Amino acid sequence: MTRSSAERLPLLLFLVGAVAFIALLLLFAYAPDLRGDTSNGANVVSRSAIGFAGLQRLLDLSGIPTEIDRGVTARERKPSLTILTPDITTGKTDWHDYEEQSAVLVILPKWITVPMPLRSGWVVKAGAWPADDIAKMLAPITKLTLKQTQGDFRGLVPASDTRLKGLPRALPGHFQLLQYFPQGGEAVVFVEDPHSKRLKPDGVNFVVRVRDGDKPIYILSDPDLMNNQGLSDPVTAQTALTIIRALRRGNGPVRMDVMLNGMTRSPSLLKALFEPPFRGATICASLAAILMALHALSRFGAPLRESRPLMRGKQALASNTAELVRMMGRQAAMAPRYVQAMRNLALARLGARSRSAAEQEQLLDAMEKASHSDTQYGWLANAATQAKTGGDLIAIAARAWTWKGRITSEHP
After folding, report:
1. What average pLDDT does the segment 260-264 reach?
2. Of 160, 313, 396, 405, which has the most beta carbons under 10 Å away?
3. What's the pLDDT score for residue 84?
4. Contact residues for 107 (Cβ-Cβ < 8 A; gap 6+)
5. Burial class (CB in 10 A: 0-12, 13-18, 19+), 149
6. What's the rounded mean pLDDT across residues 59-79?
7. Distance of CA 202 to the CA centre of its chain
8. Lowest mean pLDDT among 44-48, 197-201, 224-228, 260-264
9. CB of 380 within 8 A of CB of 400?
10. Does residue 27 register a pLDDT over 80?
11. Hey, where are the domains in the chain?
12. What angle do CA 138, 141, 145 make, to 5 degrees?
C-alpha cells in the first residue's frame, strides 16, 4: 500500500525542518569566518593606503603561503615568520601576552588618518604620530630611539648584512617623513641619502634586530616600505619581498597577526563540534536524533489512555471472567450452561418458572411451534454437549439467543 498525501506531508515537513535546523547551526558556527573583516587602519585586512592587504596578496602571488592569525589559528603548523602591525594603543600587557613561535617582524605605525566619508575604505592623512609616542609603545621590546625627518625622500640607497643578499642597491620608493632609528640595535637594513645631508653620512637603521636566537625579533621603522601605498611601486615591492624572504625561518607560512589590532576571535564550542575529532560523533548523534524523531512520527493516531491496573464495574467483571475462562481453555464447557441460562430466561419471560418440568416442556414446545422457530431447545442442548472450541461456543450462543428471542417475541 502506498502512503497518501496526508501521511507524507508531516514526514516531508519534518525532513525539511531537520535540514534547515542543521544548516542554521552550521551558519551560526562559521558566521565569524564567513563575515568579511573591514578596516581602514594599519593592519593586514585593510585596503587603505596604510593597510597591508597588498602585502599578503604579494606574498601569495610570489608562492609564499600566508595566514591571518585571529587567535584561533591552528598551532600545529609552525610559521616561518610572524608579522605584527601594532597600533599606537598597544600596551605592555598586549606584548607580554603574545606567544611567538618563530621569527617576528614588527612593522611600526606612523600615520594618523581620517576615513573619507564618500569613499569606503579610503583614508586621508592627518599627520604623523609623534616619534616619542611610538617609542613608548615599543618600550616593552626595545629602548631604541626613534626619529622622523621632514620632507620627501627618493632614491634612497639601502645596504644590508649578508643575510639579505639580492637586495637592490637603489630604493626609488617615495618616503614622506622618513621614520628611522638613528643608532643602536643590530642593523639589518640601513639607508643613506646620497643627494641630501639630512641623514648621517654612514646611513641610518631601517630594519634592526633587537633579539637574536631561534625566535629573533626584527623591527621595520617605516611602514611605507610594505604598506599598500608603498607596494604600488614595483621596485619597492621587490625590496619588501626580498626582506621578508631573508627573514623567514623554514618553509612555513607567513603569519600576519591582527590580534594586536583588536580583531581577536574566541574559539567556538559550536564550531568545534563540526570539526575533527568531534565531527564523526556529531554526525552520528544527529542521525540518531533524526531516526528517533522519524520513529516517533510513525505512530499513528492519538495515544491510548493508560488503563487502570484493576478495572471496576460489571463490564470489567465480565471481561475479566471471560479472559480467565479463555486462559483456562474452558470455553467449550460454557456452552451447556449458556443454553440452560437462555432456557431459564425464556421461562421467566413467559412466567412459567414456578411450573413443573413437564408443564415447562409443553409450554416451550407450544411456543416454538407458534413462533415458527427453526431451532428447538433439544437440538441446542445436544449441540452444547458436543462443543469442542470457543468458536463452537459462539455459534451455539448465537443460536440460543435467537431462539429465546423468537419464543418470547423480544425481537423479530
Report:
1. 71
2. 396
3. 93
4. 42, 52, 83, 84, 85, 220, 223, 226
5. middle
6. 80
7. 59
8. 197-201
9. yes
10. no
11. 5-26+272-297, 38-262, 314-408
12. 55
- Burial degree of 114 (CB within 10 A; 0-12, 13-18, 19+): exposed
The helix (H) or strand (E) run that includes residue 191 is strand 186-192
Separation of CA 332 from chain center: 67
CATH fold, domain 38-262, is Rossmann fold (3.40.50)
203: left (phi over 0), alpha (psi -120 to 50) or beta: left
Name the residue with higher pLDDT: 130 or 275: 130
Query: Which three three-digit cell numbers place residue 88?
Result: 599606537
CA dihedral 370, 374, 376, 380 (to 10 degrees): -150
Q: What's the length of the chain?
A: 412
Copy the grid coordinates of residue 249. Answer: 625561518
- Give the CA dihedral 195, 197, 200, 205, nearest 10 degrees: -50
Does the structure show a pLDDT above 80 at 78? yes
pLDDT above 90 covers a percentage of the chain that reads: 12
CA–CA separation, 75 vs 59, rounded Å?
Answer: 21
More confident residue, 248 or 14: 248
409 in the Ramachandran plot: left (φ > 0), alpha (ψ -120 to 50) or beta?
Answer: left
Kindly tell me the sign of the dihedral angle through the C-alpha atoms of 334, 337, 340, 346.
Answer: negative
Q: For the residues 42-67, what does the mean pLDDT come to?
A: 90
The pair phi, psi for residue 68, each rounded to 5°, is -100, 125
The C-alpha cell at 49 is 593606503
Nearest CA among 368, 376, 374, 378 for reference residue 408: 368
Whether this prediction's pTM lies above 0.85 is answered by no
Residue type, 412: P
Q: Which residues lie across from 91 on neighbouring strands?
A: none
φ and ψ at residue 123, rounded to 5 degrees: -135, 160
Locate 271 and state its grid cell. 564550531
Please give the full DSSP string across 14-59, using - where no structure is assigned. HHHHHHHHHHHHHHHHHHHHHSPP---SSSTT--STT--HHHHHHH
Q: Are 100 and 130 in contact (CB under 8 A)?
A: no
Backbone angles phi, psi at 36, to 5 degrees: -75, 140
CA-CA-CA-CA torsion sign (143, 103, 51, 196):
positive
Distance in angstroms (rounded) separating the CA atoms of residues 254 and 226: 14
Percent over 70 (pLDDT), the chain: 78
